[in-house]
Amino acid sequence: MATPPYQPPVADYTFLFGEAFGLDLVARASDGELTAMDATEIVAGAGEFAASVLAPLEAVGDREGARLEDGQVRLPTGFADAYRAFVDAGWITAEAPVSAGGDGLPGAVRAGLGEIWNGSNAAFALCWLLTAGQIHALDATASDDLRETYLTKLVSGEWTGTMNLTEPAAGTDLGAIRTMATPRDDGSWAIRGQKIFITWGDHDVAENIVHLVLARTPGAPDGARGLSLFVAPKVLVNPDGSLGERNAITTVAVEHKLGIHGSPTCVLAYEDATGYLVGDLHGGLAGMFVMMNSARAGMGFQATGISDRAYQQAATYAAERVQGPVQGRPAGAPVAEHPDVRRLLLSMSSKIFAMRALGVYAADLLDRADAGGDAALAEFFVPILKGWTTEDAQQVTSDAIQVHGGMGFIEETGVAQHYRDARITTIYEGTTAIQSNDLVGRKVLRNGGATVDALLAQIDETLAQLRGVDHPVAARTADRLDRAVATTRRATADLLAFASSPRDAYAVSVPYLMLLGTLAGGWMHALAVVAVLRHETLDEGDAARLTSADFYGSHHLPRVHALADTVAGGEIA
Amino acid sequence: MATPPYQPPVADYTFLFGEAFGLDLVARASDGELTAMDATEIVAGAGEFAASVLAPLEAVGDREGARLEDGQVRLPTGFADAYRAFVDAGWITAEAPVSAGGDGLPGAVRAGLGEIWNGSNAAFALCWLLTAGQIHALDATASDDLRETYLTKLVSGEWTGTMNLTEPAAGTDLGAIRTMATPRDDGSWAIRGQKIFITWGDHDVAENIVHLVLARTPGAPDGARGLSLFVAPKVLVNPDGSLGERNAITTVAVEHKLGIHGSPTCVLAYEDATGYLVGDLHGGLAGMFVMMNSARAGMGFQATGISDRAYQQAATYAAERVQGPVQGRPAGAPVAEHPDVRRLLLSMSSKIFAMRALGVYAADLLDRADAGGDAALAEFFVPILKGWTTEDAQQVTSDAIQVHGGMGFIEETGVAQHYRDARITTIYEGTTAIQSNDLVGRKVLRNGGATVDALLAQIDETLAQLRGVDHPVAARTADRLDRAVATTRRATADLLAFASSPRDAYAVSVPYLMLLGTLAGGWMHALAVVAVLRHETLDEGDAARLTSADFYGSHHLPRVHALADTVAGGEIA
Lengths: 573, 573
Description:
Chain A is of the alpha+beta class. Chain A is built from 19 helices and eleven strands. The first copy, chain A, folds into two domains: about 1-285, Butyryl-CoA Dehydrogenase, subunit A, domain 2, CATH 2.40.110; about 445-573. Helices cover about 55% and strands about 10% of the residues of chain A. The longest helix of chain A has about 35 residues, at about 285-320.
């Protein structure tokens, strides 16, 4: 037994691009340059590539892991070839905006691609995720010189990118960063310090690596306001663009981790390494936040991708595993027909659809914000997408093990890898608590819940649409969502009442984030019900969407009420 | 960094034995032969042994794992010495009933011991758990000959025991067992077949292993009613009790698992191995169920133990990890003071207390049933204890990783081991679905909810006691528990309404089990509140118990309402 072939979720993306949100999302985002059908083709192409090239390396990556040999990190067998194929197929360029020489695909389409890279091989996908994040950050903040020297090489895929924030004494608390950058006469900076947890911090799949490094400068203010951002390449670049000497950056260690073994997590020592200032002095957080926002949304796609891969494996096993003959019955049914196995599979798939739909919705919101739309709503969904999908991915990947029974606990089965891989997602790119504090502090309390109100008003519109349809699933979905919205209003009022006692608010910020994520998931399903019931006749796929929505409403949405009780309590002294 | 020293939870057991249930539970169970104070000493002694001998081998066991070498399983460094010390200290004999030559300790005390063995080293504890289960099974069913030859050696700890049920085509479905036992002229049986997932199926820490094997006999009825139980030793026993030749049982493989690496999970091939019938022909399930019930309760103690070990490590880390200096503040606070870290720690510890208390309560119920008490209630709690504690252990051990941030994902930190180890607990000894179907089918639907009513009536008594105390935590606890009881009555009525549509009942049996477990946990906390508020003055430990109860009521108990919504929906078509 081993992980079955990867099946890209193309049908869901067709539905999400073209009709779930009541319009052709892709056409709107691209001003008509692309349609949902075009986007489906792109996603299907990515899916084929992922299934044939990336997915077969998932177990290899887990088994071999990344290794440090004589100061150089070696990636698992096949990763270098896969990376070259990935670049040659244009999948890095596909991520880049037009301004950086990329394809400028709408965010919704990139959400689909992000899920597919992660679903087929999450450890590999981290290279894409960080390079893509750095492309967006440099595109937003870098000087023309830096753009020409570094950004072009990232967009072409010749070089890869990393994000260097964390230090042994500065994790969540960026203000504690001690890495020091000292100006040199030639305009470059000498960077000295140690960075830890650097994903894809060293490897052998591309000829150079561009590190984006947060560091303090002499005389800078204390805390996060004194941080500046630097580009520091693994190999120095000559004035003519050719590669020169190795920079003074040493890979001290590669971590031995619970999961994503194929992704090298490095400890990097900067020993007066050469770096170049990106953006304004002391303005390092601004650029880093562009990268971090991109990475946080990317985590949503990773959570969805890993969850779906785990689900696919569980569904395949449940369909193939036939129960032995029981008491006279000559042959049993596949375990997928057992009521509890069916429950587990529907629990997983209904969560995954909600996660996937929210990823598309949030990515599209960010596009709309860039085009002058509601930036507050777009920013509001970043922590929800990151926090909620990654937390739910823990349960989904755990359920996938459970469906396998004892076989799920055997490593060779392959399903445990998804569970181990998924565990990091609630931690890196800001823990769930960080997401929740961002949400509650900056995006709810600060504007008195105005953004929540805007969201709930939108959900009310969907409710009105649902009420206009005569179908039992529409009626049940509306009843449940209505109740959940009312509870969310109450919970938000309870949270706002804690404005003057921040400990109370932050003691329930994670439950509040999970409440909003769970509600948003219910809304995504409600939108799907509305879209499906516009069809004149319902086919098998439509029926499955209705069942999924009904299941979500019965099994997952009620959690909103429990979480609201928790939010109301504030901190328990 | 590594897992900190194990701290046995002696204070909780003192409280549970002596006052939480409003009486000296140990004195009642032992007819006054022992008191809660005596039991505390026993548990404290076990704790010392576990902390000094077993806990230091936990990480070693994970790292080295069990290995198959030339047909013989080798356990990790130190396991053999630890096992001898364990036996010499009398901890196997402590588990055995008086009728089998053991100490005959009350179940409540054995619950405490079980948690401690598992908390200090779950992989090692499985040897204890299976040997103990077999002792109880043979004590209940074996002939005098078998008792003398095998049971005495198990009770002395010279030999260890295993449980052989599962086959490649017979997991949950015992009726599909194909292993065949054919009678020989000398009264023994020739056993032929393959058994998988045999915990501690082979090892090098004791001179012999007693396998308890479910097999079919020629001409036996189909299905589970045709199964008989056999004892088959690894090494044959001569008439004088000395060890003879190896039996025809081969260890084909040792599994490579997600967790509990130190526990050898074996594939055993029986090639006309010699076995002896235990109990009645075709009555194999009866004896196996004695062992399985013991093992299922043991799983509750394992879930509690692993959870507590993970909690201890998280609490230690959070107390020691100091945030770097932030914006002018010269030094930060330990992360334990951050609102969300405090939430995670209280979430864990309040669950663990509930799990621990329910373990003691359920074990005592089984004692009382043996002494002529309410057997239905005792049997009712076995699946709840097993199912609910093991499911919650997944979240608790996940939270322990989360408290560590990025360090939690690094294997050397040691906390990921608890997460990996815990994952098996919802699967073996009957998955959560099996527990839930047992609960719903045999213990709720079959008697029209009478046992649930009996339980709720008891909770109502606790509510009356809570209402009689003037304290805000008592008032809040009563309000919440009252609401949860009402919801449980409604959910039970909804479930009973599915009596004629079993698929509906079994499609929500896991949510219903989790509802009852969560409610029972709230009841345990309510009993603790009543007991604590009997004290004239409240010390720090008392205050912590009230906070824990209050937290559980605010963060965990509300889940009852969400689960009730799910139960009401039945199967989603």
